[in-house]
Amino acid sequence: MEFDRELIVRAQAGDRSAYETIVNQFSAMVFRLISRFFRSREDVEDLAQDVFLKVFARIDQIRPDENFPGWLSRVTINTCYDELRKTRRRKTAMETYGPELTAEKSVAPTEPETLGKARLALQGLDPKLRIPLVLKEIEELSVEEIARTMGLTQTNVKVRLFRARKKLARILGVDEGNKK
Amino acid sequence: MNPLKDLFDDERKRVFLPGPSFTERVLARLNELRLRETGIWDIVPGSTRPVFAVALMLILCFFIVQLMVPLVPQRGMIEASLEAEQSPAESFLYNETEVPSREVMEQLIALEDQQ
Fold this sequence. Notes:
The structure holds two protein chains of two kinds. By secondary structure, chain A is mainly alpha-helical. Helices cover 71% and strands 0% of the residues of chain A. Chain A is built from nine helices and no strands. Chain A is globular. Chain B is rod-shaped. In chain B, 69% of the residues lie in helices and 0% in strands. Chain B folds into two domains: 3-68, no CATH class; 77-114, no CATH class. By secondary structure, chain B is mainly alpha-helical. Chain B is built from seven helices and no strands. The A-B interface holds A 16, 19-20, 23-24, 27-28, 31-32, 34-36, 39, 41, 44-45, 48-49, 52-53, 56-57, 112, 114-115, 117-119, 122, 134, 137-138, 168-169, 172, 174, 178-180 and B 1-8, 10-12, 14-19, 22-23, 25-27, 29-30, 33.
C-alpha cells in the first residue's frame, strides 16, 4: 500500500488533518481485518475505533521510515486477539455458571448445515490458533507475513497452523488431506 | 465438497466497510480522550509549575494550621456557669466590653453599695 511518510511526521506534531488522512486511508484495511474475526458490524466498528485510538496514542513510538501499514496490522490483530480472548472467557463463564445459551449456537437459517458447523468450529478455536489460520486461509498471507504481524517465529506459526487444521478436521470429521 | 474450503470462500466475501462518518467518530473520540487526559498541570506552563506548586503548598499549610489551632473562645464553660448567678449589674460590669457612661457607672456603684 502506498503511504506518505510525511503523514506520520505531521501526525506526531499533532496535525489533525494528518489523523484524518490516516483514518481515511487505512480504515478499509482495518475494517477488513476485523471483519475476519467478528460478525457484527457494531463490533467491527467499535474495534476499528479502538485500533485508531491506540495508534494515535502511540504515534510517537513509530519512526517515519518504519512500515506503518504493517505496524497498523499488528495493532489491529492484537486488538482482535484481546477481544477474542475476552469474549471466549465470558462465553466459558456463561456456559459454566449462566443459563444455557441456545441463541449463541444458532447459525443463519439459510446457511447449509455443514457450513454452519464449520463456522462454529472455527469460532470455537482458541484465538491463538484461529488468528494464524484465518490470516493464512482467508487473508491469504504468507507464513512470514503472519509471523511478522503476530510477533511470532515462522516455526511457531507453522505449528499453530498445523494444530488449528488438525483440530478443525477432528471436529468436522474431515480428512485433512482433502482440505483444499 | 469440503466444508472448510466453503467456509473460507464464504468468509473471504464477507467484509464490512467503514461508514461515511467513521472518521469523524474516531476524531471525536480522540478529542474526548485528550480533554479527559488534560489535567491542571498541562494547562500551567512548565516554567511556572514550581512557583505554582509552592503557592499551592502554602495555601494548603495555611488551611491546615487554621484547622489545627483552636479559636480562642469568647465565652467559655466557667463564664457560662457563673452567668446564671450574676445579677444584671454584675453581668454588665464584668461581661460588657464597652465602658459604660459615667452616669451609668455611678448608678451601678450606688446599687452595689446598697447591697
